[in-house]
Every structure is written in structure tokens, then in C-alpha cells.
Amino acid sequence: MACPHVSGLAATVKSWHPTWSPSAIRSAIMTTAIQRNNVHAPITIMNGSRATPYDIGAGEISLFGPLSPGLVYETRTTDYLQFLCNMGYNTSLIKSVASTAPSNFSCPSNSSPDLIPDVNYPSIAVSGLKANKTRTVKRTVTNVGEANSIYYATVETPIGMQVQVVPKLLRFTKAVKKQTFQVTFFLLTTTTSQEPLFGSVTWSNWKYKVRSPFVVTNIA
């Protein structure tokens, strides 16, 4: 029953915001999802252990949160095209299968698997991070809330990692509706577990909480 519930919620968001793109609607649903059940305890799986993003994604959908998410992550056509570039496909092959590719599109010269996490998605996945190494991911958010707003970053950091968000404050005005930030992941040398590491980055103010889960897999 999950699919009809999400589909119905997406249709409701679209009826409230007819100009929003599918990626904006997806972002609104993901970033306002909740991680606690109806008795306010962490969501668990069948064996009683705490659920991870591999089990529940961004969380349990909120019925009203997506109607007013504050910020959204817009994913453009070029994001997906550059994802294919970073996967190793060349420009001519991508254009042969992607009819929406602009005529002047070409793969960036610095295309690399390391840039795959830069797709402007409401969550972050970093794979193959080596101990004592860093990986920086960038994201751009669009303000769909009050014109003059300030958001502050908070990070849920897993044990064995350091996570830094730059800048830690995003300021929006009537003229400035988009802001870009970077998230840098540093895997400590003391980390020996091969298990994925889960956490989140949340932008919040007095009214909104815009949460993005992340997962980092490591190479010992």
C-alpha cells in the first residue's frame, strides 16, 4: 500500500503547488519525512532493531509537511546527464539514449565516479571512502517558504566520522532564492567496521526542518 499512499500525497502536493516539478515534490516528501512511529519511538524493523535508511529511506511520510517544506532540492535534466558522464558514458552515447539532452550538452572534462554523489538529490550517498580521507559533496536548495529566511545546519554524525557543512547558515531574500552548500565527510583512521555509516544533515529555523539522510560506505 505504500505506492498508492505516496502517489496520493504527490498528487495533493501538486494540487497545492501546480508549478512545482516532480523533483521538487519528491524533495518535499523526503525532507519532511519522520523517523519515529506513532508512539514517538524510533522506527524499528521486524527483529526489533532500529531501522536505517536502507530499511525506510528518508522515513515515514508526513501528511502535511510536504505541503510546506521550506526548502526543496531541484534535480535538473543536466544532473542526470552528468550522472551518466560520471558513470563513464561518453557524450555521443548519452545523447543517443536521452532525447531531452540539450544540443550543446557535453560531458565535463573532469567527469569521475567521485562526482556521482553530486546529483542534486534530497539524500546523499558516498561509497568507497577510505580511512583518513575526505569526500566533499555539494547541494543546492531552493527556498519555497518565506522570502526572507535564515536556516541553520545541524548534523547527525555517526561514530567514526567527522562531517562538516559549509556554510552553516543559509540566508534567503526575495532576490536570493537558491543557495549552495558543501558537505565534507572525513573517515577516521580508527574506523574498522565495514558496515555502512548513517546520519543526516538538517536545515532548520523557527518554522521548518529540512532533513536529508546520508549513508557512507568505507574501504578499510
UniProtKB/TrEMBL annotation:
<dbReference type="InterPro" id="IPR036852">
    <property type="entry name" value="Peptidase_S8/S53_dom_sf"/>
</dbReference>
<keyword id="KW-0645">Protease</keyword>
<feature type="domain" description="Subtilisin-like protease fibronectin type-III">
    <location>
        <begin position="118"/>
        <end position="216"/>
    </location>
</feature>
<dbReference type="InterPro" id="IPR000209">
    <property type="entry name" value="Peptidase_S8/S53_dom"/>
</dbReference>
<dbReference type="GO" id="GO:0006508">
    <property type="term" value="P:proteolysis"/>
</dbReference>
<dbReference type="GO" id="GO:0004252">
    <property type="term" value="F:serine-type endopeptidase activity"/>
</dbReference>
<comment type="similarity">
    <text>Belongs to the peptidase S8 family.</text>
</comment>
<feature type="domain" description="Peptidase S8/S53">
    <location>
        <begin position="1"/>
        <end position="36"/>
    </location>
</feature>
<keyword id="KW-0732">Signal</keyword>
<dbReference type="Pfam" id="PF00082">
    <property type="entry name" value="Peptidase_S8"/>
</dbReference>
<dbReference type="Pfam" id="PF17766">
    <property type="entry name" value="fn3_6"/>
</dbReference>
<dbReference type="InterPro" id="IPR045051">
    <property type="entry name" value="SBT"/>
</dbReference>
<dbReference type="InterPro" id="IPR041469">
    <property type="entry name" value="Subtilisin-like_FN3"/>
</dbReference>
<protein>
    <submittedName>
        <fullName>Co(2)-response secreted protease</fullName>
    </submittedName>
</protein>
<keyword id="KW-0378">Hydrolase</keyword>
